[in-house]
Amino acid sequence: MATTIVVGNFKGGVGKTKVSVMLSWELSKYYNKKVLLVDMDPQGNASTLIARSAGVSELNTSIFDGFQKGDLKDCIVNVADNLHVIPAQVSFKNLPKFLYSKFENEIDQVSYLNQLLDPIRSDYDYIFIDVPPTISDFSDNAMMAADYVLIILQAQELSLEGAETYIKYLQFMVDNYDADIQVAGVLPVLLRPGGRVDMSTIERAKEMFGEDNVMKTVVKHLERLKAWDVTGITDNDQHDRKAHKVFTDVLDELLEKLEAFEEGGKYE
Is residue 267 part of a domain? Predict the structure, then answer.
């Protein structure tokens, strides 16, 4: 049964989509895990990057098709060995209207993705959900469908506030909708490695969320990650391998945390 992880923060531009894509890519390619990436953002940036990296020229389906049909299976695109994606397109922006017209009950509205994922969870080891940085039906459905959230913290004040709001809203979902989700960790993303403001923000995050909850591994600003937006993900030279190493380090720590959660103990 898949472990389902939503990657979030209520501040845009902090690297959520890149992290969702890279963790999905590394797990499938280098850890030999069966991974499904669910794109819940109507902009479809995660879908585009995954398809470009895998040499898939066109994505002819959308998660919104699955929502309307009540079945996600026909929306799954096999983009690489062990890696599938359910892509999003701009039409998915109509999700709120669709949910309100389909369901009268608010619980049913926010739980629809969870319902649709249930028949396919056993096909995967991990499911990652990429969401827009908004308090919305997109985020609500992702939270209700996920076992864990990985919060992305770009080292700046607004991102820290966005992470704090995310955790408060997560508690709201637990209290009001009985969401069964835990914070797997807070992953720092640095704007300038070694920068004083960046380091100060991380220290404040440790005070705010608890030192054990802020991951020791950080994603540093790497030019290669921006290049991959254009070329797709590659593994051709030392710069590529350096960038991949960043995310395998993230995964090693994340998987250790998840294992501790599954064993029922607190991560130390």
Answer: no
28 close to 34: Cβ distance less than 8 angstroms = yes
Average pLDDT over residues 205-218: 90
- CB proximity list for 201: less than 8 A, separation 6 or greater: 153, 155, 156, 157, 159, 160, 188
Q: How many CB atoms lie within 10 A of CB 13?
A: 12
Number of domains observed in the structure of the chain: 1
Per-residue DSSP letter, 176: H
Q: How many residues does the chain have?
A: 268
Whether 202 is covered by a domain: the verdict is yes
Range of the domain at 32: 3-262
Angle, alpha carbons 245-253-12 (nearest 5°): 75
How far is residue 52 CA from its own chain's centroid?
18
At 152, which amino acid appears?
I
Residues 117, 73: Cα–Cα separation, whole Å = 9
Q: In the structure, what pLDDT confidence band is assigned to residue 196 with cuts at 50, 70 and 90?
A: confident
> Which CATH number goes with the domain that contains 195?
3.40.50.300
Q: What pLDDT band is residue 267 in, cutting at 50, 70 and 90?
A: very low
Please give the Cα distance from 89 to 103 (Å, whole number).
22
Does residue 76 form part of some domain?
yes
SS (H, E, C) 50-63: HHHHHCCCCCCCCH
Q: Considering the entire predicted model, what is its pTM?
A: 0.94
Stated as kind and residue range, the H or E segment containing 169 is: helix 157-177
Torsion angle, alpha carbons of 127, 76, 28, 110, to 10: -10
Task: Identify which has the larger pLDDT, 95 or 189.
Answer: 95
